């Protein structure tokens, strides 16, 4: 039986969320981070990229602070959303060869 690691909702460190934790802005930032918890890395990147497109100038930097994602990741998601044509590489989450390299099982030879 495999268990998925439960992700923790990221809490925005921006000044408005710290000063007014129950304010409308803090609720919006919390809602964005709650959505991100349920997405895989590709959809998380694309969702935040779409928000960056909608927010316009300065959106990437603001979303980086709100979500904890790097600006490079958000820019990549923004370009994926803007790209026309077929989905990239059979809807893979990562490109071929990405991720942790496989390790061989160490066994004792008697």
* Strand segment count: 0
Please report the number of helical segments.
5
**What is the N-to-C order of secondary-structure elements (H for helix, E for strand)?**
HHHHH
**Secondary structure category:** mainly alpha
- Give the helix proportion (percent range): 40-55%
Strand percentage lies at: under 5%
Biggest sheet record: none
Ends apart, CA distance between termini:
32 Å
Kindly state the mean pLDDT as a whole number? 83
Overall geometric form: globular
Radius of gyration: 18 Å
Q: Which ranges are low-confidence, i.e. pLDDT below 50, for 5 or more consecutive residues?
A: none
Polypeptide structure, described:
- This protein is mostly helical and 110 residues long.
- Helices cover 50% and strands 0% of the residues.
- The protein contains five helices and no strands.
Nutshell version of this structure?
The chain is mostly helical and 110 residues long. 50% of the residues lie in helices and 0% in strands.
Looking at this protein, list some descriptive labels.
110 residues, mainly alpha
Q: Secondary-structure blueprint of this entry?
A:
Blueprint: H1 15-19, H2 24-37, H3 41-55, H4 59-67, H5 71-82
């Amino acid at each position: 039986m495999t268990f998925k690691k439960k992700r923790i909702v990221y809490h925005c460190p921006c000044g408005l969320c710290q000063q007014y934790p129950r304010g409308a802005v803090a609720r919006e930032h919390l809602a964005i981070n709650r959505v991100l918890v349920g997405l895989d890395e590709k959809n998380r990147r694309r969702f935040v990229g779409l928000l960056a497109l909608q927010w316009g100038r300065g959106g990437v930097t603001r979303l980086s602070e709100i979500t904890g994602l790097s600006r490079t990741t958000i820019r990549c998601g923004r370009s994926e959303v803007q790209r026309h044509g077929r989905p990239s590489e059979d809807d893979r989450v990562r490109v071929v060869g990405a991720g942790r390299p496989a390790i061989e099982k160490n066994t004792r030879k008697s």
